[in-house]
Amino acid sequence: AIAVNEVGQREVLGIKVDHNESYQSWATFLQDLISRGLQSPKLITSDAHKGLKKAIQEKFLGTAWKRCTVHFRRNIVDCFPKKDCEEARSLLSSIFSAEDVDTVRQLKNLFFDKYSSDKRFEKAINVLDDGFEDAIQNLNFPLRHRRFIRSTNHLERLNQEVRRREQVIRIFPNTQSAFRLIGAV
User: Fold this and answer.
1) What are the pLDDT digits (tens) for 78-125?
2) What is the rounded distance in angstroms from the CA atom of residue 31 to the CA atom of residue 43?
3) Minimal CA–CA distance to 134: which of 77, 64, 70, 57?
4) With contact defined as beta carbons under 8 Å apart, do 59 and 39 qualify?
5) Other C-beta atoms within 10 Å of 19: how many?
6) Confidence band of 169 (pLDDT split at 50, 70, 90)
7) Do residues 25 and 54 make contact, with C-beta atoms less than 8 angstroms apart?
8) Which has the least CB within 10 A, 34, 79, 99, 118?
9) CA separation (Å) from 95 to 90, 98, 109, 162, 176?
10) Helical residues (DSSP H) of the chain, grouped into ranges
């Protein structure tokens, strides 16, 4: 878990090694963060993993949840037709790079108006509509913090570095050795 503090700096809050990604493992991790002093963050950004979302809702009542913009855009683009969708990609990109809520909503409506009559985009429109509000929660925060909270890219990059080092080791003799490597990274 990585946090952005009041001055816009990232801080690692905690790490956990687990064998699966389930509701129970996430709930245990969040409870550990709480027991170490974490109190109701204003926003949590993650992918749309159902177990993680459920754990967040249970452990941090009143905390806003934001869907990672990068994961969300990827989910939408995966529903696009394979050909002739460069313009749709560009419009989708402009939706998530706008800096105020009114502009974002206008661009979303423009996207719907432009592609709702095209059956090839039906699934993409449904995905965009279902997750839109969750994906724009970062717009409720100061501009200087938005680039840190709009996606989980910084966390993904950290995980990528852990995986790179883990491949050299291949097999960990126990969980504590994996924990030590991650902590060192």
Assistant:
1) 999 888 889 999 999 999 998 889 999 999 999 999 999 989 999 999
2) 17
3) 64
4) no
5) 7
6) confident
7) no
8) 99
9) 9, 6, 10, 32, 44
10) 23-35, 50-59, 69-77, 86-97, 101-115, 122-135, 143-149, 153-169, 175-184
Q: Note the pTM of the prediction, 2 decimals.
A: 0.80
Report, in angstroms and rounded to the nearest whole number, the Rg of the chain calculated over CA atoms: 19
Helices and strands, number each (H, E), in the chain: 9, 4
Q: Which two tokens stand for residue 45?
A: 């950004």
DSSP-assigned states of every residue in 127-140: HHHHHHHHHTGGGG
- Which amino acid makes up residue 74? R
| Alpha-carbon 47 to chain mean position | 4
Tokens of 51: 């177990």
DSSP-assigned beta bridge partners for residue 11: 3
Task: Give the SS3 label for residue 83.
Answer: coil
Residue 15's H or E segment, with its range, is none
Interior angle at CA 47, CA 42 and CA 53, nearest 5: 60
* Alpha-carbon span 39 to 60, nearest angstrom: 8
Find where tokens 């979302």 sit: 53
